[in-house]
Design goal:
Elements lengths: L1 H42 L7 H12 L11 H33 L2 H16 L6 H8 L3 H25 L3 H9 L4 H36 L7 H10 L3 H29 L12
Helix pairs in contact: 2-10, 3-6, 3-8, 5-6, 6-8, 8-10, 9-10
Length: 279
Protein backbone atom coordinates (compact mmCIF):
# COMPACT_ATOMS: atom_id res chain seq x y z
CA UNK A 1 0.00 0.00 0.00
CA UNK A 2 2.85 2.35 0.87
CA UNK A 3 4.57 1.62 -2.45
CA UNK A 4 1.33 2.36 -4.28
CA UNK A 5 1.05 5.72 -2.55
CA UNK A 6 4.65 6.54 -3.37
CA UNK A 7 3.97 5.63 -6.99
CA UNK A 8 0.88 7.82 -7.12
CA UNK A 9 2.77 10.69 -5.52
CA UNK A 10 5.57 10.43 -8.08
CA UNK A 11 3.03 10.30 -10.89
CA UNK A 12 1.31 13.42 -9.52
CA UNK A 13 4.64 15.23 -9.20
CA UNK A 14 5.75 14.36 -12.74
CA UNK A 15 4.04 17.31 -14.51
CA UNK A 16 5.51 19.74 -11.98
CA UNK A 17 8.99 18.30 -12.50
CA UNK A 18 8.58 18.55 -16.27
CA UNK A 19 7.55 22.21 -16.01
CA UNK A 20 10.46 23.01 -13.70
CA UNK A 21 12.88 21.20 -16.00
CA UNK A 22 11.54 23.04 -19.05
CA UNK A 23 11.85 26.43 -17.34
CA UNK A 24 15.36 25.65 -16.10
CA UNK A 25 16.44 24.61 -19.60
CA UNK A 26 14.84 27.50 -21.45
CA UNK A 27 15.04 30.29 -18.85
CA UNK A 28 17.91 32.10 -20.55
CA UNK A 29 16.28 31.82 -23.98
CA UNK A 30 12.94 33.11 -22.66
CA UNK A 31 14.68 36.00 -20.88
CA UNK A 32 16.56 36.84 -24.08
CA UNK A 33 13.30 36.89 -26.04
CA UNK A 34 11.69 39.23 -23.52
CA UNK A 35 14.69 41.59 -23.55
CA UNK A 36 14.73 41.51 -27.36
CA UNK A 37 11.02 42.35 -27.51
CA UNK A 38 11.29 45.24 -25.02
CA UNK A 39 14.48 46.66 -26.57
CA UNK A 40 13.22 46.60 -30.16
CA UNK A 41 9.82 47.94 -29.11
CA UNK A 42 11.44 50.90 -27.35
CA UNK A 43 13.97 51.53 -30.12
CA UNK A 44 11.28 51.49 -32.84
CA UNK A 45 14.00 50.91 -35.45
CA UNK A 46 12.87 49.55 -38.86
CA UNK A 47 16.14 47.61 -39.13
CA UNK A 48 15.31 45.62 -35.99
CA UNK A 49 11.66 44.44 -35.92
CA UNK A 50 10.23 42.99 -32.73
CA UNK A 51 10.10 39.21 -32.19
CA UNK A 52 6.29 39.40 -32.22
CA UNK A 53 6.34 41.01 -35.67
CA UNK A 54 8.81 38.39 -36.90
CA UNK A 55 6.69 35.49 -35.62
CA UNK A 56 3.57 36.97 -37.22
CA UNK A 57 5.43 37.30 -40.51
CA UNK A 58 6.67 33.69 -40.26
CA UNK A 59 3.12 32.48 -39.72
CA UNK A 60 1.75 34.46 -42.67
CA UNK A 61 4.58 33.38 -44.97
CA UNK A 62 4.84 29.66 -44.22
CA UNK A 63 2.24 28.28 -41.80
CA UNK A 64 -1.06 29.80 -42.84
CA UNK A 65 -1.79 27.24 -45.55
CA UNK A 66 -4.64 24.73 -45.75
CA UNK A 67 -4.87 21.78 -43.38
CA UNK A 68 -4.55 19.40 -46.34
CA UNK A 69 -0.98 20.71 -46.81
CA UNK A 70 -0.18 20.48 -43.07
CA UNK A 71 -0.82 24.24 -42.89
CA UNK A 72 2.21 24.93 -45.09
CA UNK A 73 1.87 27.68 -47.67
CA UNK A 74 3.00 27.39 -51.29
CA UNK A 75 6.01 29.56 -50.41
CA UNK A 76 7.10 27.07 -47.75
CA UNK A 77 6.57 24.04 -49.98
CA UNK A 78 8.36 25.62 -52.93
CA UNK A 79 11.37 26.90 -50.97
CA UNK A 80 11.87 25.38 -47.52
CA UNK A 81 11.35 21.76 -48.57
CA UNK A 82 13.74 21.94 -51.57
CA UNK A 83 16.38 23.52 -49.33
CA UNK A 84 16.02 20.76 -46.77
CA UNK A 85 16.26 18.18 -49.55
CA UNK A 86 19.50 19.71 -50.83
CA UNK A 87 20.92 20.03 -47.34
CA UNK A 88 20.25 16.42 -46.35
CA UNK A 89 21.26 15.02 -49.76
CA UNK A 90 24.54 16.92 -49.84
CA UNK A 91 25.22 16.00 -46.22
CA UNK A 92 24.52 12.33 -46.93
CA UNK A 93 26.75 12.28 -50.03
CA UNK A 94 29.63 13.97 -48.22
CA UNK A 95 29.10 11.87 -45.10
CA UNK A 96 29.10 8.51 -46.89
CA UNK A 97 32.14 9.51 -48.94
CA UNK A 98 34.00 10.63 -45.82
CA UNK A 99 33.18 7.44 -43.91
CA UNK A 100 34.17 5.08 -46.73
CA UNK A 101 37.45 6.86 -47.48
CA UNK A 102 38.16 7.41 -43.79
CA UNK A 103 37.83 3.71 -42.94
CA UNK A 104 40.10 2.76 -45.84
CA UNK A 105 42.76 5.36 -45.07
CA UNK A 106 42.56 4.91 -41.31
CA UNK A 107 43.52 1.24 -41.60
CA UNK A 108 46.24 1.77 -44.20
CA UNK A 109 49.21 3.79 -43.01
CA UNK A 110 50.88 3.61 -46.44
CA UNK A 111 47.82 4.93 -48.29
CA UNK A 112 47.36 7.70 -45.73
CA UNK A 113 50.98 8.81 -46.14
CA UNK A 114 50.42 9.21 -49.88
CA UNK A 115 47.06 10.96 -49.63
CA UNK A 116 47.65 13.12 -46.53
CA UNK A 117 49.08 16.13 -48.46
CA UNK A 118 46.03 16.08 -50.73
CA UNK A 119 43.71 15.95 -47.71
CA UNK A 120 45.52 18.88 -46.11
CA UNK A 121 45.18 20.85 -49.34
CA UNK A 122 41.52 20.00 -49.83
CA UNK A 123 40.40 20.76 -46.29
CA UNK A 124 42.06 24.18 -46.51
CA UNK A 125 39.95 25.14 -49.54
CA UNK A 126 36.72 26.95 -48.62
CA UNK A 127 33.80 25.28 -50.35
CA UNK A 128 32.41 28.73 -51.16
CA UNK A 129 35.54 29.59 -53.13
CA UNK A 130 34.81 26.66 -55.46
CA UNK A 131 31.33 27.89 -56.35
CA UNK A 132 32.54 29.35 -59.71
CA UNK A 133 34.13 25.98 -60.52
CA UNK A 134 30.94 24.11 -59.67
CA UNK A 135 28.92 26.56 -61.77
CA UNK A 136 31.13 25.78 -64.77
CA UNK A 137 31.00 22.03 -64.18
CA UNK A 138 27.31 21.66 -63.39
CA UNK A 139 25.72 24.85 -64.74
CA UNK A 140 22.85 26.29 -62.71
CA UNK A 141 20.58 24.25 -60.48
CA UNK A 142 20.58 21.75 -57.67
CA UNK A 143 23.85 19.98 -58.67
CA UNK A 144 25.77 23.15 -57.80
CA UNK A 145 24.28 23.21 -54.29
CA UNK A 146 24.88 19.49 -53.80
CA UNK A 147 28.51 19.76 -54.91
CA UNK A 148 29.15 22.74 -52.61
CA UNK A 149 27.56 21.10 -49.58
CA UNK A 150 29.19 17.71 -50.20
CA UNK A 151 32.65 19.21 -50.64
CA UNK A 152 32.39 21.15 -47.39
CA UNK A 153 30.90 18.24 -45.46
CA UNK A 154 33.33 15.52 -46.47
CA UNK A 155 36.41 16.87 -44.63
CA UNK A 156 35.30 16.82 -40.98
CA UNK A 157 33.71 13.40 -41.52
CA UNK A 158 36.81 12.07 -43.30
CA UNK A 159 39.27 13.27 -40.65
CA UNK A 160 37.16 12.04 -37.74
CA UNK A 161 36.64 8.67 -39.40
CA UNK A 162 40.38 8.28 -40.00
CA UNK A 163 41.08 8.95 -36.33
CA UNK A 164 38.31 6.59 -35.30
CA UNK A 165 39.56 3.79 -37.55
CA UNK A 166 43.06 4.22 -36.11
CA UNK A 167 41.74 3.85 -32.56
CA UNK A 168 40.88 0.14 -32.85
CA UNK A 169 42.15 -1.78 -29.82
CA UNK A 170 45.41 -3.55 -30.77
CA UNK A 171 44.22 -6.64 -28.88
CA UNK A 172 41.18 -6.82 -31.18
CA UNK A 173 43.46 -6.47 -34.21
CA UNK A 174 45.69 -9.34 -33.13
CA UNK A 175 42.71 -11.50 -32.19
CA UNK A 176 41.09 -10.94 -35.59
CA UNK A 177 44.34 -11.88 -37.33
CA UNK A 178 44.78 -14.99 -35.20
CA UNK A 179 41.27 -16.23 -36.03
CA UNK A 180 41.54 -15.26 -39.70
CA UNK A 181 38.47 -13.05 -39.54
CA UNK A 182 37.05 -12.30 -43.04
CA UNK A 183 37.65 -8.74 -44.21
CA UNK A 184 33.96 -7.85 -44.32
CA UNK A 185 33.42 -8.99 -40.73
CA UNK A 186 36.63 -7.21 -39.74
CA UNK A 187 35.39 -3.92 -41.18
CA UNK A 188 31.76 -4.07 -40.05
CA UNK A 189 32.31 -5.99 -36.81
CA UNK A 190 35.40 -4.31 -35.37
CA UNK A 191 36.66 -1.23 -37.24
CA UNK A 192 33.32 0.47 -37.89
CA UNK A 193 31.93 0.03 -34.34
CA UNK A 194 35.19 1.35 -32.88
CA UNK A 195 35.11 4.38 -35.17
CA UNK A 196 31.39 5.18 -34.71
CA UNK A 197 31.79 7.76 -31.90
CA UNK A 198 34.29 9.72 -33.99
CA UNK A 199 32.15 9.31 -37.10
CA UNK A 200 29.10 10.72 -35.34
CA UNK A 201 31.18 13.60 -34.03
CA UNK A 202 32.24 14.47 -37.58
CA UNK A 203 28.69 14.08 -38.90
CA UNK A 204 27.33 16.41 -36.24
CA UNK A 205 29.90 19.10 -37.05
CA UNK A 206 29.27 18.71 -40.76
CA UNK A 207 25.49 18.98 -40.32
CA UNK A 208 25.81 22.56 -39.06
CA UNK A 209 28.28 23.28 -41.84
CA UNK A 210 25.86 21.86 -44.40
CA UNK A 211 23.17 24.30 -43.29
CA UNK A 212 25.50 27.25 -43.81
CA UNK A 213 26.71 26.01 -47.18
CA UNK A 214 23.13 25.35 -48.30
CA UNK A 215 22.22 28.99 -47.74
CA UNK A 216 25.39 30.35 -49.35
CA UNK A 217 25.13 28.09 -52.39
CA UNK A 218 21.51 29.17 -52.94
CA UNK A 219 22.57 32.80 -53.09
CA UNK A 220 24.27 32.03 -56.40
CA UNK A 221 22.63 30.30 -59.31
CA UNK A 222 19.40 29.24 -57.57
CA UNK A 223 15.80 30.06 -58.42
CA UNK A 224 14.26 28.81 -55.19
CA UNK A 225 15.22 27.86 -51.67
CA UNK A 226 15.83 29.61 -48.36
CA UNK A 227 19.00 31.33 -49.52
CA UNK A 228 17.32 32.58 -52.69
CA UNK A 229 14.30 33.96 -50.81
CA UNK A 230 16.60 35.51 -48.21
CA UNK A 231 18.43 37.35 -50.98
CA UNK A 232 15.13 38.48 -52.54
CA UNK A 233 13.98 39.89 -49.20
CA UNK A 234 17.28 41.74 -48.72
CA UNK A 235 17.20 43.21 -52.20
CA UNK A 236 13.62 44.35 -51.60
CA UNK A 237 14.62 45.92 -48.27
CA UNK A 238 11.88 43.94 -46.53
CA UNK A 239 13.68 43.66 -43.23
CA UNK A 240 10.95 41.84 -41.33
CA UNK A 241 10.90 39.04 -43.90
CA UNK A 242 14.71 39.01 -43.87
CA UNK A 243 14.70 38.51 -40.10
CA UNK A 244 12.03 35.83 -40.49
CA UNK A 245 14.34 33.80 -42.73
CA UNK A 246 17.21 34.29 -40.26
CA UNK A 247 15.10 33.03 -37.36
CA UNK A 248 13.92 30.09 -39.47
CA UNK A 249 17.53 29.08 -40.11
CA UNK A 250 18.21 29.13 -36.37
CA UNK A 251 15.15 26.97 -35.72
CA UNK A 252 16.11 24.50 -38.45
CA UNK A 253 19.67 24.28 -37.13
CA UNK A 254 18.49 23.46 -33.62
CA UNK A 255 15.83 21.03 -34.84
CA UNK A 256 18.29 19.11 -37.00
CA UNK A 257 20.78 19.02 -34.14
CA UNK A 258 18.19 17.62 -31.70
CA UNK A 259 17.11 14.95 -34.16
CA UNK A 260 20.72 13.98 -34.82
CA UNK A 261 21.50 13.81 -31.08
CA UNK A 262 18.53 11.51 -30.56
CA UNK A 263 19.72 9.18 -33.32
CA UNK A 264 23.28 9.30 -31.99
CA UNK A 265 22.19 8.36 -28.46
CA UNK A 266 20.14 5.47 -29.80
CA UNK A 267 22.89 4.13 -32.05
CA UNK A 268 25.70 4.55 -29.52
CA UNK A 269 23.73 3.42 -26.46
CA UNK A 270 25.61 0.11 -26.51
CA UNK A 271 29.02 1.69 -26.90
CA UNK A 272 31.29 1.84 -23.91
CA UNK A 273 32.18 5.47 -24.58
CA UNK A 274 28.61 6.65 -25.20
CA UNK A 275 26.79 8.76 -22.63
CA UNK A 276 23.05 8.80 -23.30
CA UNK A 277 22.45 11.60 -20.78
CA UNK A 278 25.04 13.87 -22.37
CA UNK A 279 23.82 17.01 -24.13
Amino acid sequence: MTQARVGLRRTAELPARMVVGFLARWAVFIAFGIVWQVATDLADDPYFPTPVAIVETMYDLWFSGPASHLFLTDLAVDNILPSLGRLLSGWAIGGVTGVVLGIALGRSRLALDYVEPLISFGRALPAVALLPVFLVLFKLGTPVQLATISFGVVWPVLLNTIHGAQSVDPVQVETARAFGLPRRRWIFGIVLPAALPKIFSGLRISLSLALVLMVISELVGATDGIGYQFQVAMQGFDLTITWAWIVLLGILGNLLNWIFLGIERWVLAWHRGARPDEE
